[in-house]
Amino acid sequence: MSEPVKVLGERRAFAPLLTVEGLQVRYGAIQALRGVSLQVGKGEMVALIGANGAGKTSTLRAVSGMLKAAAGRITLEGKDTTSLKAHQLVPRGMAHAPEGRGIFPNLTVQENLELGAYLRRDTARIEQDMEKGFTLFPVLKERRRQLAGTLSGGEQQMLAIARALLSKPQLLLLDEPSLGLAPQVTETIFRTLREVNATGVSVLLVEQNAHLALNAAHYGYVLETGEVVMAGAGKALLESAEVRRAYLGE
């Protein structure tokens, strides 16, 4: 039987948006998730941290319908979404910017952004939201006619986030947004994430840089070998000697 989850600090009150209960995921004979439970509130930013192979990406992929859950339950605004596929979750307000960015390199920046809004019919609002994206990431406006594959890694990450936001999500899933990026670019991306979150968009963030993630997040979960072993307010986890030793190299 699993050890009880160690909880640190008080959680701020947010109305529930996403609830994951006892989530299990298998890749053939390998069990990647062993009963993960977590919550994301409306307007809350939640971080998932843990070593490589802990199950962070598998959690996001199961939540967004890219992986089938072997057991457990996922609800979005109280409605069961456990068996829904990714394309069924986008109209319900979920967007996933995956690890590796997942942009279309042979399309322009503008065309990539337009694909983010493919389910929408409100043309005037799409234009406004595209301009908002350019305000968040001005470099994308300069590069809008450029092929996405010619952008730098940081610019591609900005494009992946801006494209996800064009679907008007209430919940944004982000997988390793700082991976392979220079510190200055990473800082820009996290500053923008805070701005996006401040507009009411909930964020579930997987991030190798635990310090950055927990600094930005209201709440965090620590995953080890497919299980949540610790949870708590972002700042409380940052101050935990256990977390600092294991994930901050202190």
TrEMBL record:
Coiled coil: none annotated. InterPro entries: AAA+_ATPase, ABC_branched_ATPase_LivF/BraG, ABC_transporter-like_ATP-bd, ABC_transporter-like_CS, BCAA_Transport_ATP-bd_LivF, P-loop_NTPase. Keywords: Amino-acid transport, ATP-binding, Nucleotide-binding, Transport. PROSITE patterns: ABC_TRANSPORTER_1, ABC_TRANSPORTER_2. Residues 18-250 form the ABC transporter domain. SMART domains: AAA. Pfam families: ABC_tran (PF00005). One of its GO terms (molecular function) is ATP binding. Gene3D superfamilies: P-loop containing nucleotide triphosphate hydrolases. Belongs to the ABC transporter superfamily. This is ABC transporter ATP-binding protein. It comes from Corallococcus praedator.
